[in-house]
Amino acid sequence: MNKQYASVKMNNSNINKLNILDLPDEILLIIFNKLKTVDAIYSLVDVNDRFNRLVFNSLHIRKLDTTNMVIKSYYDRRFSIDNNILSKICEKILPRIHHQLNELIVEQNSMKYILLTGNYPQLDSLSLVNFQKEILLQYLTGNSILHHLFTQQIQYLNIDVSYDPKSKGSKILSSIFALFLSICKQLINLNFCQLFYDRKTPICIYKFPLTSCISSTLIKLKVNVATFDDCLYLLDGRLKHLSTLIIDVKEIFLSFSDKNKKKLPDLKCFSLTSMKDTRHYDDQIIPLLRRMINLKELTLFLLVLKNDSIYIDGIQLHDQILIYMPQLNKFTFSINTVIVNEDIKIDRPSNEDIQHSFIGKGYGQVGSYVHYRQERNVGTSHVYSLPYQFEYFFHLNNSFQGDIFDTVQCLAMTDGRPFEHNLFKLISQCFPLLKELRVVNYQPQKNKQHSSILIIFPRLILLNL
Fold it and tell me: Any idea what DSSP says for residue 215?
């Protein structure tokens, strides 16, 4: 017994003496690859010759992310890394790897130091995070290293602008967008202010001259615009080789532009998101979609308002849109329909009717629920493809049936009947990654027997009541 105890004690002693330096290279590389690149190289560079060899030779660093997001509040986020880390990166690391970097992610405060450290001959992907619009405009119009990269090298560009509560309009940002398309002669992929789900500043470009926003190289574009006219402006042929457009339209109302009925044969992927109710689904959205005759992927996130009509269902989507897209192989959607019935009596479909409308048309699994607010004579329907792919979920009400929505970060609830404890419990289970919860309901709870049981939303940072 004493020998066994002594053996166990000796083994424990050996474990306690185990040093990371004793691990073989293969294990160290596995550990290093689990770390963020900037953390790994900052911690390991110049520790010893072995670590230098592993970091600079074995990892063969192609991408460097020099940002670190810290959320102080919903509207206050910091992306800067520690000054000591930045100093070491510029002095000890970048001089050794600048020639091999393909991708760089920087924020405003550190960019000038990082750009002056090397010439980055292989760099073709750049992400500019949390920039003030005015500073970004200076970089674009000035004779800087960044300007040279834009004109000669950058093919993949991601732009994020900082939140500014005093900002009035988007004139500067709209001009910046046009400048990027003009300056970046090699650009094939542009994400303009869609890096974060809750920082989608719209631009307004439809009144720009016909010679603006032209590119003969751009293939993929992610952008937020103010109006549907801006969307039509981008699809009028000025982006000659555009095949993928992922666009968020702030408001969809009647277009003031000329009715362009030309087909869009080069467009292969189209995503349309609008988070405000629109009455122009039939006369604006459907005609545009019918022009996309070679589309392979379609994504729709829409809130549609109609008078004295019926819900958008599987039959309508098929007959009005999908039959005009013979090559379509992927359709992702979340469509809320709000029907206001005034003096006309209309038979409202049940949820079973809605589900049945999707059968046999190749939709895959579809979720849905319908709801009727008798006091306002308003019916609502929500249909969505499963698994749910969006970061938003709007118009949730007491008819919600549940499911897992692990992509949703912003949830908006509204109803004329009170939201009871059990519904919030269901929501906490169905939306595990929820960050924003917006509740519109003026009716007090009736069943308060569970009010002492705590419901937890572990990631929630904004509650709007």
Answer: B
